[in-house]
Amino acid sequence: MAFEPPPRLVRALGETAPDGDDWLARVSATARREVDLRALTVERVQVPGGRSSLVVLVRQADGTPAVLKLAPRRARPESERAALAHWGGAGAVQLLESATGSAGSGDSGDSGDSDDSHTSGGDGVLLLERLHPDVSVRSLPEAKALLEAAGTLRRLWVEPPVGSAAVFETVAARTGRQAEAMSATAGTDATVAPLVEAALAAREELLVAPPEARLLHGTFRQSKVLAAGRVPWLAVGPDPVVGECAFDLARLVRDRVEDLIASSSGAAITRRRVKRLAESLDVDQERLRGWTLFRAVESGVRALRVGRVRDAELLLEFAGWL
């Protein structure tokens, strides 16, 4: 079977691939090797799939459904693996292999460049429990979807493991890199400069005295919460980071942004959403508003930088409401 990367993955990785990166060219061979090593039966590649990994629906030797996930090293696979192991299936998809390997197979990874090592378990290969990949909370009515997503997110906010500083980025470090890129773009595009300035100022203020340091999902939104068997909903695809909970919740605020922009009362709905989510998860409302502003502007500027003009327009208009 050919493990052809879906078009969405090809487009997304093409926007961020460094010069000389050949992960997409190698991923089919990597997938075949990892499937053979684990004696897996392949059902299909998940389409449209994600934007940072190849997801293959498989069955283990005993017939148990599973997912084999492969992604380039720049997707921080070692960090995702560590987070999933720490959560242990509570609120998130369960690892079916440990970081050092499992019986009858090798090491598992997550989304990274497994071909960097020609042995099983190179970074970037994860064997995961099978959820229902085509059913996310986004399929629910909006109010119910936000409720279920928020409840799932609360379960993930735990103390990071001891000695995790070398594994997980902090919110300060991640947003610092993003802030540099935002500033560079603003310097060449005066139309986004006011929003970038506001977002950067919000970040500086928020980093002065964060109220807690928790292990966060990092890229949480409705589409990252899938229907499961052992519990109704579980999170997938973290890009974990350590920091305050408001940072994690901020991405959820702008879910279905295209619907918000299309609504004549989108700005008012957004403000009510910030208030409702902050209250339901015991997060400071102003801190949530600030991180929502920063993350929306950062995403909008990044979309602009890679030529996704329509996405950029939606995100920056949304940010203007905050």
Account of the protein in words:
Strands 1-2-3-4 form a 4-stranded antiparallel β-sheet, covered by helices on one side. A 3-stranded antiparallel β-sheet has the order 5-8-9. The model is unreliable at 100-122 (pLDDT under 50). The protein has 2 domains: 7-130, Phosphorylase Kinase, domain 1; 136-320, Aminoglycoside phosphotransferase (APH), C-terminal lobe (Aminoglycoside 3'-phosphotransferase, Chain: A, domain 2), CATH 3.90.1200. Helix 5 (171-186) runs antiparallel to helix 6 (193-206) and helix 10 runs antiparallel to helix 11 (309-320). The chain has 322 residues and is an alpha+beta fold. The chain is globular and about 55 Å long. The chain is built from 11 helices and 10 strands. The chain has helices spanning 7-16, 23-38, 77-87, 142-156, 171-186, 193-206, 245-253, 257-262, 266-280, 285-305, 309-320; strands at 41-45, 54-59, 65-70, 125-129, 132-136, 169-170, 214-216, 225-227, 233-235, 241-243. Strand 1 and strand 2 form a beta hairpin. The protein starts with 6 loop residues before the first helix and ends with a helix.
By CATH, the architecture of the largest domain is named Alpha-Beta Complex
Level of helix content?
40-55%
Could you list the spans in which at least 5 consecutive residues all have pLDDT below 50?
Answer: 100-122
Largest sheet: 4 strands, antiparallel
Distance between the termini: 48 Å
Q: Any idea what the shape is?
A: globular
- The CATH topology of the largest domain comes to Aminoglycoside 3'-phosphotransferase, Chain: A, domain 2
Q: Tell me the structural class.
A: alpha+beta
